[in-house]
Design brief:
- It is a single chain.
- The protein is an alpha/beta fold.
- It has two domains: 284 residues, TIM Barrel; 134 residues, Dinitrogenase iron-molybdenum cofactor biosynthesis domain (Nucleotidyltransferase, domain 5, 2-Layer Sandwich), CATH 3.30.420.130.
- The protein is 36% helix and 16% strand.
- The chain is built from 14 helices and 17 strands.
- The strands form four sheets. The protein has a seven-stranded mixed β-sheet with strand order 11-10-7-6-5-1-12. A five-stranded mixed β-sheet has the order 15-14-13-16-17.
- A hairpin with a 2-residue loop joins strand 8 and strand 9.
Amino acid sequence: MELPVISAAPATSGGCSAGSRGSTPDAFAHLPDHIRARVRDHPCYSEQAHHYFARMHAAVAPACNIQCNYCNRKYDCANESRPGVASEVLTPEQAVRKALAVAAAIPQMTVLGIAGPGDALANPARTFETFRLFAEKAPDIRLCLSTNGLALPAYADEIARHNIDHVTITINCLDPGIGARIYPWIYWNRRRIHGPEAAAILIGQQQKGLEMLVERGILVKVNSVMIPGINDAHLREVSRTVRAKGAFLHNVMPLIADAGHGTYFGLAGRRGPTAAELRALRDECAGDMAMMRHCRQCRADAVGMLGEDRGAEFAMDKVDAMEIDYEAAMAKRLEVRAGIVDQLQAGHAMRSGAKAAPAPPSRPVLMAVASTGQNLVNQHFGHAREFLLYEVSAAGARFVGHRKTDLYCMGADACGDKGGGQGKSKSESAAGHSAESVLARTIAALEGCAAVLCSRIGFEPWGRLEAAGIAPNGEHAMEPIEDALMAVYREMQRADAAIAAPAREWEQEQKRA
């Protein structure tokens, strides 16, 4: 089931296309329809799809052939959400049983990927056996993998034979001197190589592998980790180069550098980029190619929609106890996808039929949204572990990223009522921090936002947000995100005009006098 081809103005490095009625420009509008159709239901590749579709990462690849200073692989770990982390490493047979169980329970699942916890191509037998077995059972689900690229040229033909038409390569630099500061060593031709020599080999293999995949018609997304002081200024060149070689999407991710994760960079105190630095770099690179802004830097065993992790529901002991009607599950998946297609077509028809008045120039503002998916404002403020960020102007709403936070409210749904004391329903967050400290961090994470939209919000966070200069808004629950954002923006414009009117009148009086 493919999503409809939706026409849109080409994406630019700046704001939205005029007259878009609040819709985010299609970053893939410049691509042929047959290529756009291949990514439109892939939540890790398409910004639109991540609101509606789910994915599963099969943790079958424990070994890695390089060492990165930002990585520390951890196993049997349920409390961290970052690449390289998994609660259990599976055999190919276990991974297929789990994937079929996930596909039955989450009919929105459209993608099975292998992203570690090591490197997919450093474990080729396990990786390709998983794909072979799963393709026989669920041919409707797309297959993809992520790799550091060192072994990619050797397996490009094997990738094509298994109908894996989406591959992500992590490319952090093109300069071996920079690479030596990121990669302590690689394992190549049965020996460990260090320094610039190792980085030069890795970079050469990555570029060769990228070209080989593109020649075989495989879609390539490039991931890059933004490391302030090391490769941040260099990533513009990376973006230009990989686009020239045929990559169609670039995902610039922030360095995760918490000392508690045990990485070299974390223990050395190297900081990650600020939200403003990350956004500025993404905007600069967007002049070269389509930019991915909705990445969540998922675990190697992630399950569900982007921004959520349902992996604990599908531990192997639970999967082994499940009784699944696979034929009924297949029918349900097709039914759900057809419903999503109908929903998207209806929304597109409504937007296409609306005639918007020419939008005057306006200063864009940032707004945050609490959402569990389906492109709706449908989550309580206190239940959000992340907020989606949009740049909103009279020209439309442009998705620019997300801000993560801790769970503030551990109580029942009713705790989100405006009259209730949401922050008082539970004194401790999921991470063991006080609700007071979690709320303070959440408000700090929303710095720079003019408003936050959610389905409900408690009295205490409402007041704290207002005191921080952020307007809380629970008036657009269950509305499409972009429509709600534009409604709030227009209300802001009306309020600004009402405030400015007396000042203009006074100025006119002064001139007449």
